[in-house]
Design a protein that fits this description.
disordered C terminus, disordered N terminus, 599 residues, globular, alpha+beta, 47% helix
């Protein structure tokens, strides 16, 4: 629906194929049916059965769409309905409420703020926020004065009051058995990101703590599924969080290694390379403690760094290792739940897909993706400035990255494919998303290799290079272990030297295996000089060079043959004319005599 408003199956069941290139965002306007009012330009190419319809520019009015909807199949359109209340996520239109999921970037921000203070106390705070959270999936752990009188299902409505006497809504966090006295109640969340929840505690410190929407302290009453109970708890210490950045790594064993769709390719690259499922959590905690990892490959000894270097290792590890893989996990979860050919039963997959988009972007990017965030969306925009890959065409040095334009298109397409039950196509879309998400990690590795090698980068730059490399080395290793070894040896923690050209060449040697091109990565741009750094311009794809060479060779052969034939014909003609002249009967003179006689 989102991609040019065409269903992937016709009423006759004929398969359709679509390819849409969105250059600008569009806006969803919902009434009783979903209506998309397009304000910008969409270029689409559709193949329906054997007919090809090409639409170059399309501006649709609300009245026209309303008329179309009036004649559309009510069951199909009804099941593709969207709610107006769901705010956009950096231009993406979610089909479910995910404000609480998007808020994980507020934990990332809180971690970075505490790291930047560079004191022992602030680093302890940062580690606890990493481990315990504070902004996502908030719940109260209360103690009932009497046990539950019956079993209570997960999601059962719970109401109580805050310290001001105002009602606070929630639901049962888990299915809980009768006789239980320690109960988890998850706070209700709203569709509005700025006020999605009003109880944010966990391990947060200072002004980040928000108790205004928490259940009241001390002894009070609470209603659980229509039954009133007296409870006690301490708001400052017993409001916790069920979603944490640490959990994004520690839960991978169950969710990906042993998941219903296992093995999952990208997760397996990392698990096999590092030799463990929770590699990201081990990386981050080793940096917090100033210790060393014990991986199969890619080890690091963080005792060689002070707080300056370890700060970079931690904050890049949490966002680009923990969050990166869990984003992929949500897309995989959506595919595991996708029911092929069923247009009425894919709400859960769409919700999981929406969660994946939220973990990529976070909440602080806003609805248009313009503000600065703390997760992968922001990283893509930052690196595009360094590699001149901004704008829809990937040639600008400002604005949104081409990568984010492309990913938002893929996110929207995957959402639509899941809604329509086109599970095989949704899987191809997910695979393309995963390929694209490696781009900033490669760019970051190349950038800091150059800074360390040529710009006298110190501990900070060395740590940044090591962090970016750690976030992509397993994928490179799966393509070419020798290339991965070269990158690791140049960028690892404690590397004796760094050769930026060797790092660049090693990455370039595996672009095709990673599904990427030289244009995807770009070149390291020097904005002050308005040119690429020496030797750091975009590479040329080997396949492109081969095609050009073969084409040129074919053209040269064709032209040579043609000119050769023409030359031979001309030579024959000249020899023939000379022969006639020697016999006293020139070709042109004879023709003139004949013409005169006939006249």
């Amino acid at each position: 629906l989102r991609s040019c408003l065409l269903r992937e199956k016709t009423r006759a069941g004929q398969a359709t194929h679509q390819k849409c290139i969105r250059r600008h965002s569009f806006h969803a306007i919902e009434d009783t049916h979903q209506v998309v009012h397009h304000h910008h330009r969409i270029i689409c190419s559709h193949k329906i059965a054997n007919d090809i319809i090409k639409i170059s520019t399309m501006k649709l009015s609300i009245s026209l769409l309303a008329a179309s909807l009036a004649t559309a199949d009510a069951g199909v359109w009804g099941n593709l309905r969207r709610r107006l209340s769901y705010e956009k996520v950096a231009t993406y239109s979610p089909g479910s409420q995910v404000t609480d999921h998007c808020a994980i970037d507020r934990d990332q921000r809180a971690v970075e703020v505490e790291l930047a203070r560079k004191t022992n106390e602030s680093w302890q705070n940062a580690q606890q926020i990493y481990l315990q959270g504070g902004n996502s999936k908030s719940y109260a752990l209360i103690t009932l004065s009497e046990p539950l009188r019956s079993n209570v299902a997960k999601g059962t409505s719970v109401t109580g009051k805050n310290a001001d006497g105002n009602e606070v809504a929630g639901k049962m966090y888990d299915t809980t058995s009768s006789g239980t006295v320690n109960v988890k109640v998850q706070y209700a969340t709203t569709d509005v990101q700025d006020s999605y929840v009003q109880c944010q505690v966990g391990a947060l410190v200072g002004e980040d703590i928000n108790l205004s929407g928490c259940f009241a302290d001390g002894e009070n009453t609470i209603n659980i599924g229509g039954e009133v109970y007296t409870y006690t708890y301490t708001a400052a210490t017993e409001n916790k969080n069920g979603r944490t950045i640490a959990g994004f790594s520690t839960q991978l064993e169950d969710k990906l290694k042993n998941g219903p769709g296992a093995p999952y390719a990208d997760f397996e690259y990392f698990r096999k390379y590092y030799g463990t499922s929770d590699y990201a959590d081990q990386w981050v905690n080793a940096a917090f403690e100033g210790g060393r990892t014990s991986f199969t490959n890619g080890n690091a000894d963080f005792s060689q760094y002070g707080m300056e270097g370890r700060e970079q290792i931690i904050k890049k590890g949490t966002a680009y290792m923990n969050v990166w893989m869990y984003t992929i996990r949500e897309f995989e979860d959506a595919l595991d739940d996708c029911k092929r050919g069923c247009i009425n039963c894919n709400d859960d997959p769409v919700h999981a897909w929406d969660e994946g988009v939220c973990f990529y972007t976070g909440s602080l990017e806003g609805q248009d993706g313009a503000p600065s965030g703390y997760l992968l969306h922001q990283l893509a925009d930052k690196r595009s400035l360094d590699f001149k890959t901004g704008g829809p065409d990937g040639t600008d040095v400002d604005g949104q990255s081409k990568l984010n334009y492309d990913l938002m298109d893929e996110f929207a397409l995957g959402n639509y494919q899941l809604q329509s039950g086109n599970c095989p196509s949704a899987r191809k879309t997910k695979e393309r998303i995963a390929q694209l998400m490696y781009i900033p990690m490669i760019q970051g590795s190349i950038r800091y290799a150059y800074k360390v090698d040529k710009l006298q980068g110190g501990e900070k730059e060395k740590a940044e290079g090591a962090a970016f490399a750690a976030a992509v080395l397993p994928r490179v290793h799966a393509a070419n272990s020798d290339a991965a070894s070269k990158i690791y040896n140049n960028l690892r923690v404690g590397a004796s030297s760094t050769n930026h050209q060797e790092v660049k060449a090693a990455f370039e040697s595996v672009y095709s295996q990673l599904g990427l091109t030289c244009a995807d990565i770009g070149g390291l741009w020097n904005e002050a000089e308005k040119s690429y750094y020496p030797g750091m311009g975009p590479c040329t794809d080997a396949s492109t060079t081969k095609v050009v060479t073969e084409t040129n060779s074919t053209l040269a052969i064709a032209l040579g043959t043609t000119f050769g034939v023409l030359f031979a014909l001309a030579l024959i003609a000249v020899l023939y004319m000379r022969s006639r002249e020697k016999k006293g009967a020139p070709v042109f003179k004879t023709e003139m005599v004949q013409n005169s006689a006939s006249t």
